[in-house]
Structure formats: structure tokens, C-alpha cells
Amino acid sequence: QVQLVESGGGLVQAGGSLRLSCAASGRTFNNYVMGWFRQALGKEREFVAAIRWSVGSTYYVDSVKGRFTISRDNAKNTVYLQMNNLKPEDTAVYYCAAGTIYGTRHWRDFVSWGQGTQVTVSS
After folding, report:
1. Residue 1 has pLDDT above 90, yes or no
2. Where are the beta strands (DSSP E) in 1-123?
3. CB 15 within 8 Å of CB 23
4. Is residue 48 within 8 Å of residue 119, measured between CB atoms?
5. 98 exposure class (CB count in 10 Å sphere: 0-12, 13-18, 19+)
6. What was the pLDDT predicted at 28?
7. Which of 10, 47, 100, 119 could potentially form a cystine with 105 if both were Cys, beta carbons 3.0 to 4.6 Å apart?
8. What is the mean pLDDT of the chain?
9. Which of these, 9, 8, 18, 10, lies nearest to 85 by C-alpha position?
10. Mean pLDDT across 63-76
């Protein structure tokens, strides 16, 4: 059974940085796509970024391109989301997710989810 555990959230001022981690366990992830989603209070869950574990190819939502970077560490079975130049509109609960469809941005295509970590950006 896939288990995903996020960490690294917190409170940061606008313009600051945070790095989120997602520790993955329960199976081999070479055939998986790992994604980050976020959900702000009162809003729908939104795709942020994803990475194909086997080759490291990535894609992002336009609003975070140039500011966020998704990566993975094979040895640690961990996926990261480096977030720079944070803005108040980035405030949300961030979720790590695992699926098998590369290129999708829809949360329903991801089958395993972590519990989420809160990111709050103050202005």
C-alpha cells in the first residue's frame, strides 16, 4: 500500500522560500507520476506540478512556472517541491499524490494522497 507523508510547510513572508518534502513508501515508484496539488480555503483542489519518477520529466501550472521546482531523490524515495518568491495567493494546504498518467492535471487521476501540509504566505 502506497504511503505518502508530506512535511516542510509553515509560515513565510511574501518573497520567501519553502521546500516541501513527500516521503513515499509501500512500493517501487519507477512507473509512477508524483504530483503536488494545493487547496486554498473555500476553493477547489488545484494542480501545481508533477514529475515522472523514472526519467524526471516535469510539468507545472502556469502560475508557478519559474518560481517552483519539483524534483525527486531516488535513494531517499522522496519528492520535493522547492517554492521560491512565494506570494500570498500561494497560501493553501499542499498535498502530495501518486498516479500513473503522465501529463494529467486532474486530481482524480491520482490514486494515492498524503495528509497535506499547510503553507501560509503573509503579505
Report:
1. no
2. 3-7, 10-13, 18-25, 33-39, 46-52, 58-60, 68-73, 78-83, 92-99, 110-113, 117-122
3. no
4. no
5. buried
6. 86
7. 47
8. 97
9. 18
10. 96
